[in-house]
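Quarterly update from the structural biology core.
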Amino acid sequence: LGDAGFQRLFPARPRRLEALAAVNCGLGGGAVRWLSWAEPLAGLKALDLSNNPKLEGALEPLGRERTGAGLRSLSLRGCVLADAAVRHLTAAAFWPTLVELD
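Predicted structure, tokenized:
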């Protein structure tokens, strides 16, 4: 699927999503940056990005933008995260309200 294919999944005026699972589909930094400002994803409560090993360095925008603010569940199973990525997660707007982290 990759970053470009992921972005094409959403039409110009889609409904808002509350949960999104994009597991093992080759997503990288471009997709996560797009996630951080995409209008249909502004109300996400659950996000599963498991088994996307190219996410390293892409988590900062997700925690900084409005999309992540209401996130309650985040799964990053199988994603290798360096110390900087963990620091971005714990500084994210959603960190205090996060109730599930995998």
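The CA atoms of residues 54 and 92 lie 20 Å apart.
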